[in-house]
Amino acid sequence: MRPLNIGITCYPTVGGSGVVATELGKILAERGHNVHFISSSFPFRLDKVYPNLYFHEVEVNQYQVFQYPPYDLTLASKMAEVVRSENLDILHVHYAVPHAVCAKLAKDMTGGNVQVVTTLHGTDITVLGSDPTLKEVIRYGIEASDTVTAVSNSLAGQTNDLFHTTKHIETIYNFIDERVYDSEMKENLREEFGITGDERVIVHMSNFRPVKRTEDVFKAFEQVARHVPARLLLIGDGPERSSLMKQVKAANMEQEVLFLGNQKRVAELLQMADVMLLLSEKESFGLAALEAMAAGVPVIGTDIGGIPEVIGHNETGFIVPLGRPDLVSAHCVTLFNNPLLHTRFQQASKDRAQRLFSAAEIVSQYEKMYYHTLQRGGYQ
After folding, report:
1. Selected residue with higher pLDDT from 102 and 133
2. pLDDT tens profile 198-233
3. Which of 28, 128, 339, 380 has the most CB within a 10 Å radius?
4. What does pTM read for this prediction?
5. Contact yes or no for 169/150 (Cβ under 8 A)
6. Radius of gyration of the chain (CA)
7. Which domains are delineated in the chain?
């Protein structure tokens, strides 16, 4: 089959959907496809040069007639421009609003030959979908797409339940580039962070929104620290960071809790950890958990959304009810006090990540889906 011309639109800043979309584009380019990112800014994970990977910036002009800059219309216009100039076969958009609606408009503007693939990541369904002012336009974006995918079975089911759509939604999981995790941990990295040999390291990585329940992460850590010497590494940034810093200060644990902010080279940091905590109240997949597992880190996560599809309970980590930091801390202590069990979970985590969520497997699923979509649309 011939290489494809693929346009990708995503939110380019820090976040799971942008990470997955960017990594997908990079690997598609490595496989010989021509990939065109169409976005408001350069995707932050696009850190390597490829001769067949391009960036098209959506520039929003300011006009007095508009109270707010018309990003949606400008994006649709830029999509149409790239469809024409680059003869795109596929417009693959991440998030139903506004991207799927803009892609449909671009398709209509260019004669209808390009095929629109929409990947649902969660917030567009679980948060925006509950807003009555957006519900109809989200449903339209889903129904108007030629193919729709979701990052977990849980999200696909939620979408059908919430929107009562007849559109088939195919589950294609998020993935990791296993090559990133093949390298050995940087020597003395723990020492550089001031972590002693007898200290256990717990890590949490998120955008620090309320749904991530960072207060539960810290409560669990406090209880663990009463039983074993431990450090808590917090990777990421967001609205809950300042309140969490106050809790840490009030508990007089500034030395035990390290706020690392947003990081690009998370694989190296994760390899310092003994356990990851993902205690969210909403999580359509749990990319942070998968990244930790790929680094051989057992994960304790809540029984929410797609998390149980990622973590193998009692195999690679533990699944716990929402709002039970006491159980989380108990599981951590169990692992720390049982080196054989911890080692088994470490290896099983890496094996599961590579077996079920490898880039080689998941990107092949996307390629198959692209060609199938084109065949349904008249691709010869």
Report:
1. 102
2. 999 999 999 999 999 999 999 999 999 999 999 999
3. 28
4. 0.91
5. yes
6. 22
7. 5-175+358-376 (3.40.50.2000), 179-356 (3.40.50.2000)
